[in-house]
Design goal:
Mean pLDDT of chain A: 94
CATH architecture of the largest domain in chain A: Up-down Bundle
Largest sheet of chain B: 3 strands, mixed
Low-confidence stretches of chain A: none
CATH superfamily of one domain in chain B: Butyryl-CoA Dehydrogenase, subunit A, domain 3
CATH topology of one domain in chain B: Butyryl-CoA Dehydrogenase, subunit A, domain 3
Distance between the termini of chain A: 38 Å
Number of helices of chain B: 10
CATH topology of the largest domain in chain A: Butyryl-CoA Dehydrogenase, subunit A, domain 3
CATH class of the largest domain in chain A: Mainly Alpha
Strand order of the largest sheet of chain B: 1-3-4
Mean pLDDT of chain B: 96
CATH class of one domain in chain B: Mainly Alpha
CATH architecture of one domain in chain B: Up-down Bundle
Number of domains of chain A: 3
Distance between the termini of chain B: 10 Å
Shape of chain A: globular
Largest sheet of chain A: 4 strands, mixed
Structural class of chain A: alpha+beta
Radius of gyration of chain A: 21 Å
Number of strands of chain B: 8
Radius of gyration of chain B: 19 Å
Helix content of chain B: 55-70%
Oligomer: heterodimer
Strand order of the largest sheet of chain A: 1-4-5-8
Structural class of chain B: mainly alpha
Largest interface: A-B, 47 and 47 residues
Chain lengths: 372, 298
């Protein structure tokens, strides 16, 4: 055990900090509006040009091949510098790990560089109007056709779907198979014939959601990720990322906790002291739990059902951080501002990526081993 | 940066676990509730032989967890804090000396020093093994150990034991709800029961790394370990109290009896969560550090 960062890790941190301090845009509008999204793409391309978009990717994709520790360091520095939410996150943090694991070389070469450069923008097409927590209940289908498949159905709650260019999603390829079997994982350009996208407002009013309709949309065989009818397994590899480490590194919550502490110092309220400190300490606990997890992953362990513990912890912490800030603001809490905006965003955490009720079932059954 | 134990440290933990399964089963803890010493005959010498009170913080932290897991009724926290196997300890925030009647030496805080103490009245703990005594700070300064470091070591040892206690209570609960049947199926298959235990596992999962990290900080930078120790003790106290509450609830009436073993673990958790600075005491210390602008960057 050695909790000191190595010289090269410190050098990496210093380089990241210097670049971010010089380049992070402040006052960017929300990336979940059409105009804001476009401005965020400029930022994403700047990150890419200076090799900060996807620091952990292999050198052959022109990146830094950073270790997991360095990636955590980058994230800490990114949010410390006030960097905005990554509008590319569903591609680079959710789809990319799956492409690295299941994609052919041709798919990797075709998909990953354009994703990293924010040329192709990916959204997730999993949930349907009648299949949310029960993801295995999806109804959208893919029918065999010459050289590919024909997709029909509807996806919804698709984050930034109205602004993205591509969708990764699950469709039923074997109509006879039940539940988790007979699904495949498709990669679909949203400008394909037969695709209709309708954006709509989330809780905060931004057009951050979309529903996506498919009517006999042709997708060639080369855009199936992983084996046909094995889509569930391929998708579950992505949920591990979504629930756990890659999407929600500690840096974001440490930065929010630090801002909460600053707010509390500027307008102290003794009855809230203990909650502020408890939030800050939980952000620290999340950090140390993550460093311990990363050590296990670097020793060859797989991210498994434990990711559900992580998801429960960060999503509930994020809500508490913002609730506590709003209490400090008192009557100003209702005014439009970053804390209310952040609060509305945080409230999605216990719902998306598998509701926290589902996560508690996963923890009980697959971490603790309780009977189903 | 590498936050993991090495193979030797894990072997030492396993050896301690094996020893305690043999020398300190639940029946031995139960016997200590009603014998004259509140302790397990012969166990202390075995712990001393293991070298628990000589090893550094990182090498011994997992063994301290095991002593919590086995609910060991011995002055482990006190002796480990003082790095001497013949002594027990009382501080301003933890004023009664555990096992002062059987420990060789009693040390007590007087202002910023540790001095020899004489024993006063017995105080009765909710944990029947914890023989607590009032002490009088009438002796001389007998150690050059720094008070702050001793207090932090005691808090960390208690935090480690709380993590071990919580793990055992969680394991007992998982085993119980898997075999206890109502309505024709194991109660552990009901979602309401599952969610209680998921909450318990959650708090424990995020307390344990704080304890391990504080051990490293104490071993490497003992004069600047307050924030790390306070994080560890606050998280471990909250975790153990929550796990205790959930364990009692999912056991139902059987847990609410002194004939079943769980109560010994629950009461030890209550005692250690309150001793050596409870969660509120440690959050208050972190609060003061935050107000001074300090943070705990590694």
């Amino acid at each position: 055990m050695d909790l000191r960062f190595t010289e090269s890790e410190e050098a990496f941190r210093a380089e990241a900090r210097a670049w971010l301090d010089a380049n992070v845009p402040h006052e960017l509008p929300s990336g979940d509006t059409r105009d804001g999204f476009a401005l965020h793409l400029d930022w994403e391309r700047k990150l890419f040009d200076d090799r900060w978009a996807v620091v952990s990717w292999p050198k052959e994709y022109g990146r830094r091949e950073a270790s997991l520790i360095e990636w955590l360091i980058f994230e800490e520095e990114y949010y410390r510098a006030g960097g905005p939410q990554r509008v590319t996150q569903n591609g680079i943090f959710l789809l990319a790990p799956t492409v690295f694991e299941f994609g052919t070389k041709e798919q990797q070469d075709r998909i990953l560089p354009r994703m990293a450069g924010a040329e192709d923008l990916w959204c997730q097409g999993w949930s349907e109007p009648n299949a949310g927590s029960d993801l295995a209940g999806i109804k959208s289908t893919a029918r065999r056709d010459e050289g590919g498949w024909r997709l029909t159905g509807q996806k919804t709650w698709t984050t930034r779907g109205a602004f993205c260019t591509h969708l990764f999603g699950l469709f039923r390829t074997d109509p006879e198979a039940q539940r988790h079997r007979g699904m495949s994982y498709f990669l679909v350009p949203l400008d394909a014939e037969g695709v209709t996208v309708r954006g709509f407002g989330r809780l905060d009013g931004d057009e951050g959601f979309a529903e996506v309709f498919f009517e006999d949309v042709f997708v060639p065989d080369g855009d199936v990720l992983g084996e046909v009818n094995k889509g569930w397994n391929v998708a579950m590899a992505t949920t591990g990322s979504e629930r756990g480490l890659t999407l929600r590194s500690p840096g974001r919550f440490m930065a929010t906790a630090a801002r909460l502490v600053e707010l509390w110092k500027s307008q102290p309220e003794p009855s809230i002291d203990d909650d502020v400190v408890a939030c800050w300490m939980d952000a620290e606990a999340y950090r140390w739990q993550t460093y311990a997890t990363v050590a296990r992953l670097m020793d060859g362990a797989k991210a498994g059902a434990e990711a559900s513990l992580t998801k429960l912890f960060w999503s509930e912490l994020d809500v508490r951080l913002h609730e506590t800030a709003l209490r400090l603001l008192g009557p100003d809490a209702e005014l439009e501002g970053p804390w209310m905006k952040g609060f509305e965003f945080a409230l999605a955490g216990p719902i998306y990526a598998g509701t926290n009720e589902i996560q508690r079932n996963v923890v009980a059954e697959r971490v603790l081993g309780l009977p189903r | 940066m590498r936050f993991a134990f090495d193979a030797e440290q894990l072997e030492f933990r396993d050896a301690a676990r094996n020893l305690l399964e043999k020398e300190c089963p639940a029946s031995a803890v139960r016997a200590a509730w009603s014998n004259d010493t509140g302790r397990v005959w012969g166990l202390w010498d075995r712990l001393v032989e293991m070298g628990l009170f000589e090893l550094d913080e990182v090498d011994s932290i997992l063994v301290l967890e095991e002593t919590g897991r086995a609910c060991v009724p011995e002055p482990v926290v006190e002796a480990w804090a003082l790095q001497r196997s013949d002594a027990t300890l009382a501080l301003d925030h933890t004023p009664f000396a555990l096992y002062a009647d059987t420990a060789g030496v009693v040390l007590v805080q007087r202002d910023e020093d540790l001095v020899g103490a004489s024993m006063g009245e017995r105080r009765v703990s909710v944990d029947g093994t914890r023989r607590l005594f009032e002490v009088h700070d009438d002796g001389d300064v007998v150690t050059d150990l720094e008070l702050g470091v001793v207090a932090d070591r005691a808090a960390l040892a208690a935090a480690a034991q709380l993590v071990g206690l919580a793990q055992q209570m969680l394991d007992m609960s998982v085993a119980y709800v898997a075999q206890r049947e109502q309505f024709g199926k194991p109660v552990g298959s009901f979602q309401a029961v599952k969610h209680h235990l998921a909450d318990a596992a959650l708090r424990l999962e995020f307390a344990r790394p704080c304890v391990h990290r504080a051990a490293w900080v104490l071993a490497n930078d003992p004069d600047d370990a307050q924030d790390a120790v306070s994080l560890a003790k606050a998280q471990a106290s909250e975790a153990a109290l929550l796990v205790a509450r959930k364990a009692l609830q999912v056991h139902g009436a059987i847990g609410y009896t002194v004939e079943y073993d769980l109560h010994m673990w629950i009461k030890r958790s209550w005692a250690l969560a309150a001793a050596w600075g409870d969660a509120g005491w440690h959050r208050n210390r972190v609060k003061n550090a935050l107000l001074k602008g300090r943070t705990t960057d590694a």
